[in-house]
């Protein structure tokens, strides 16, 4: 559906069009942050190696900084994969039901996946709040850990939003990608 043509489809069409655009912008921002985190990993490790070769010692905290950014990039990879239809699932179940059931079964799977992500998101919020309340810090930088941990509830709740959108509007669901 082209942006603008949803006016012809009524409130449901407008909602679907809005969700399509919102998810697209969300995806683009997630990809930008993921790429930036990976760029920071490569830059910090490269600078650390160059400093070791030229000066005989590395950059303080460069490796730990790279580890945090790598974790953020890896975790954001979860939402990127959900958005692009590359998530893993058991395809054996597809053959257990008749072909005409595939649509409803896919929607049920999206609802179940969304509920799982909501539950995990709630636990992740509690974990991050607990970490913030306890004032947990990194042993090297003495930085608060909770700002880095915020990615945990985000990935689960953003994925729940996607799965809920796929269940409500199946046309939003990306085509599944084959395992590579």
Give a structural overview.
This protein has helices at 10-55, 62-84, 102-134, 146-149, 151-168. The protein has 180 residues and is mainly alpha-helical. The protein has one domain (5-87, 97-172). The two termini are 29 Å apart.
| Number of alpha- plus pi-helical segments | 5
Low-confidence runs (pLDDT<50, min 5 residues)?
A: none
Rounded Rg: 21 Å
Mean of pLDDT: 89
Helix content: 55-70%
**SS-derived structural category:** mainly alpha
* Number of strand elements: 0
SS strand fraction? under 5%
End-to-end C-alpha gap: 29 Å
Order of helices and strands: HHHHH
Summed up, the domain count is 1
Shape: elongated
Described by strand count, sense and barrel closure, the largest sheet is: none
Oligomer: single chain
Structure summary:
This protein is about 70% helix and about 0% strand. With about 180 residues, it is mainly α. About 20% of the residues are buried.
């Amino acid at each position: 559906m082209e942006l603008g043509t949803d006016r012809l489809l009524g409130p449901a069409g407008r909602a679907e069009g809005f969700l399509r655009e919102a998810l697209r912008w969300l995806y683009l921002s997630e990809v930008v942050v993921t790429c930036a985190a990976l760029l920071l990993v490569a830059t910090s490790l490269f600078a650390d190696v160059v400093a070791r070769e030229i000066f005989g010692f590395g950059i303080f905290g460069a490796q730990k900084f790279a580890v945090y950014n790598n974790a953020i990039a890896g975790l954001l990879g979860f939402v990127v994969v959900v958005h692009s239809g590359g998530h893993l699932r058991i395809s054996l179940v597809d053959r257990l039901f008749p072909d005409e059931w595939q649509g409803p079964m896919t929607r049920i799977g999206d609802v179940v996946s969304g509920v799982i992500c909501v539950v995990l998101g709630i636990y992740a919020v509690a974990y991050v709040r607990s970490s913030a309340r306890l004032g947990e810090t990194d042993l090297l930088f003495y930085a608060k850990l909770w700002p880095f941990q915020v990615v945990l509830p985000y990935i689960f709740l953003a994925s729940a939003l996607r799965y809920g959108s796929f269940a409500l509007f199946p046309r939003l669901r990306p085509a599944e990608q084959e395992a590579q």
